[in-house]
């Protein structure tokens, strides 16, 4: 799959365009006038303090939250086609005693056959193909409650990649993952971004990862405070103010 962005122009590239997006919940302005362009093959990191409206913005893009303004997607030769979106929600918790295996989880998400009938050979093969995309075939028989934070994110990522979406959205995929796991998850996202020419939108509080992996960082607190390269945003006075940091962050 090949695709090339042409500078900043959206005319020849595929692009998710968010214009003047606002969300009110119970009369309170949660998001005000958000403007954002995400090109294919780009990773954009959405950062901001707790309660800034990050998850709300993701939900608006997913169509799970009412909003005013416009969200449009255009691909080469296909304007305003509805994009396929893959979504990894914020830290779902599974009971450590949960006997459901990774294969069972996939089967119940992907087939109409009741899970108590077991996973068919064909489905198992399909699950392996999905797990292969995240180098996670070894996880297929593990109970989901026993997965490490990083392994769980990998499995959820594999689910979100079936079918391969245009846009991949992950809400705080790095929380609950140890440093080693964070590195390998970010490497994986980077590989997937390039391989499938995906737009990836993540929210995170792990700013140290951003200079290496994000193409664009957007700092929000109900409105966009600053957006630009990781370095520009992390060294900005807006960032220091939003996170009450005295010095600018090293980037
Ligand atoms: P973040 O993900 O940046 O931590 P959220 O988008 O989850 O922030 O929340 C932003 C604000 O919107 C918070 O003040 C939160 O309380 C409020 N909010 C989010 N969802 C709802 C909801 N369903 N009902 C009422 N308030 C909500
Ligand atoms: Mg959130």
Word description of this protein:
It is a single chain. This protein is of the alpha/beta class. It is 30% helix and 25% strand. The protein is built from eight helices and ten strands. A six-stranded mixed beta sheet has the order 6-7-8-3-9-10, with helices on both faces. A four-stranded antiparallel beta sheet has the order 2-1-4-5, with helices on one face. The longest helix has 18 residues. It is globular. The N terminus is likely disordered. Bound molecules: adenosine-5'-diphosphate and magnesium ion (MG).
Q: Mind sketching the topology for me?
A:
Blueprint: E1 15-25, E2 28-39, E3 43-47, H1 54-62, E4 68-75, E5 78-79, E6 85-88, H2 102-110, H3 121-132, H4 149-160, E7 167-171, H5 179-196, E8 199-203, H6 210-213, E9 216-221, E10 223-228, H7 230-234, H8 237-242
Parallel strand pairs: 3-8, 3-9, 6-7, 7-8
Antiparallel strand pairs: 1-2, 1-4, 4-5, 9-10
Helix pairs in contact: 4-5
The chain binds adenosine-5'-diphosphate and magnesium ion.
Adenosine-5'-diphosphate binds next to helix 1.
Give a short synopsis of this structure.
With about 250 residues, this protein is α/β, with parallel strands linked by helices. The chain is about 30% helix and about 25% strand.
């Amino acid at each position: 799959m090949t695709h090339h962005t042409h500078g900043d122009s959206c005319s020849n590239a595929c692009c998710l365009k968010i214009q003047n997006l606002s969300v009110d919940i119970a009369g309170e302005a949660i998001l005000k006038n958000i403007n954002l362009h995400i090109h294919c093959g780009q990773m954009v990191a959405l950062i901001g303090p707790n309660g800034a409206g990050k998850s709300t913005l993701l939900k608006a893009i997913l169509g799970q939250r009412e909003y005013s303004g416009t969200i449009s997607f255009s691909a080469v030769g296909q304007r305003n086609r509805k994009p396929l979106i893959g979504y990894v929600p914020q830290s779902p918790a599974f009971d450590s005693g949960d006997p459901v295996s990774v294969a069972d989880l996939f089967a119940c998400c992907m087939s109409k056959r009741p899970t108590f009938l077991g996973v068919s050979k064909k489905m198992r093969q399909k699950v392996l193909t999905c797990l292969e995309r995240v180098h996670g075939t070894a996880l297929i028989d593990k109970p989901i409650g026993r997965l490490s934070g990083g392994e769980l994110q990998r499995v959820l990522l594999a689910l979100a990649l079936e079918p391969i979406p245009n846009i991949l959205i992950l809400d705080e995929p790095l929380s609950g993952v140890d440093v080693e796991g964070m590195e390998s998850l970010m490497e994986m996202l980077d590989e997937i971004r390039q391989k499938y020419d995906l737009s990836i939108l993540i929210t995170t509080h792990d700013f140290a990862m951003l200079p290496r992996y994000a193409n664009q960082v957007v700092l929000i607190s109900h409105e966009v405070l600053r957006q630009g390269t990781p370095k520009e945003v992390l060294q900005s006075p807006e960032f220091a103010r939003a996170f009450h940091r005295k010095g600018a962050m090293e980037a």
